[in-house]
Write a structure and sequence with these properties.
The structure is a homotetramer of 156-residue chains.
Chain A: H1 9-20, H2 23-28, E1 31-36, E2 39-45, H3 59-75, E3 82-93, E4 101-110, E5 115-126, E6 129-144
Antiparallel strand pairs in A: 1-2, 2-4, 3-6, 4-5, 5-6
Amino acid sequence: MELGAQLDEAAIRRVRGSFERQGLMRHLGARMTDLRAGIVTLHLPFRAELTQQHGFFHAGGTAAIADSAGGYAGYTLFADGTEVLTTEFKLNLINPARGDLLEATGRVIKPGRTLTVCHLDVWAIAGETRIHCATGLQTLICVRADRADAAPTERG
Amino acid sequence: MELGAQLDEAAIRRVRGSFERQGLMRHLGARMTDLRAGIVTLHLPFRAELTQQHGFFHAGGTAAIADSAGGYAGYTLFADGTEVLTTEFKLNLINPARGDLLEATGRVIKPGRTLTVCHLDVWAIAGETRIHCATGLQTLICVRADRADAAPTERG
Amino acid sequence: MELGAQLDEAAIRRVRGSFERQGLMRHLGARMTDLRAGIVTLHLPFRAELTQQHGFFHAGGTAAIADSAGGYAGYTLFADGTEVLTTEFKLNLINPARGDLLEATGRVIKPGRTLTVCHLDVWAIAGETRIHCATGLQTLICVRADRADAAPTERG
Amino acid sequence: MELGAQLDEAAIRRVRGSFERQGLMRHLGARMTDLRAGIVTLHLPFRAELTQQHGFFHAGGTAAIADSAGGYAGYTLFADGTEVLTTEFKLNLINPARGDLLEATGRVIKPGRTLTVCHLDVWAIAGETRIHCATGLQTLICVRADRADAAPTERG
């Protein structure tokens, strides 16, 4: 499947259904605003419940939506009967994360049967302004759906 | 100051005061359970609001407390009139993050006037069992308190 | 200066002069094939002296040219009288590094007075084929030229 | 097998034999000075051929021996008929890499059937002085020996 291609209804349901089961995303207030083959975008509107000590978005919230965006970007490409776990990720925080909302995009750079590697990018949006506030890399592992309780170092 | 040394009252107040201003930590339910010179430990009790799609702790919550633990570990060593920002961090998720609570420890490996580097470790605690569920590295930047709104690439 | 802009003669001399003082790049056989504002490309032709145990390029060689490409990409933007040190980098190895040569590109994502962040990418070139074999992130620190012997955690 | 345990003759031969096939390690002048279950140490004596522009060890050489130390630390634990590939690694450079030699240690933090995670540490040794100059994390993948030419994202 080509990167960025339209997903069929079943795939959209599968990915959105999984996202909606993530208690943390709901608790933070994140929404999945776009999903295509290998590319997923999430929005996280600003709330005082998401801040660090200076009143900006906490890097933990930035990381949480970046991780979910990448995880679901990979998951759009996975076969039925499999699940996704994050093996590792790394994030560089390059501009202040302040504004009306954060937008995180995960984009598959290398799909694989075992491991999938994604680029992660987060923008802080304030009115018309978009500031690139974080960039990262993530490694995902594809596991059998009945082994999603295993360590993220095991293929299952 | 020696790593692990007792902090004085003023330092403890400064660090705890900053932690209490982090809206995200309160929203997630994290508590600072130990702070010494260059070493800080946080606890995050399990709640459905912290889960990923399989009902375990979401890597974003793991990352959030690991980042705060490391940030405050560095901050215990910083001079008055300065603030801490995270420049980057990287986390390997090595075992399932499931249990009654997560315990995150940040530990300064290299204190610096500009940058400080920390090891991050997270354990999943279930009853008597402690499982090492994540290990990471983090780079912090020390900025002037009146420049904490600048980019985390600038010393201020 | 715009990313990708032509550099003037003095800047080209300064960057190439520094690259030529890197004993490791000469020992590996790396050449700087392109340099523009914030973007530098290096080539590393295949030799048995660069291999890992299966006869492909060793990840250490891939890392070495990726690090130098990024370091010099940042350095093209630095003021006179300053030097560049690598603070940290992270590399994902996504395809086999085999072929006639490796091409590494460093590209500044966020220039800063203190820290500069780069994307690193390496391709393995075999005849007409280009395979993306590594992607990474790097943080550079700008130090005073007379403090280039300090720790890469200090601005100098 | 317990971390740090003595290896048997066959395992030592298997690991040392593989290390000796790494053309890059020979070209740099690295030696394997210690190997135990899950822990491997390499030495890299200083030479002008290993320098960056200021005459210290180039981060690429530091990365190369850190990567090999970690890779072989993992390999000591792998089953016969398998090979090791590096999936990703990240290195923080925390002190100047200058001295008579670099010592790199790779240490398995999480052994796995598919992925193995290592801590990497490098010291710069000058006479009696040991300076911790780099610390890192690495993810290895275990592949079938006849699939060691596959991408480091595939279990093979």
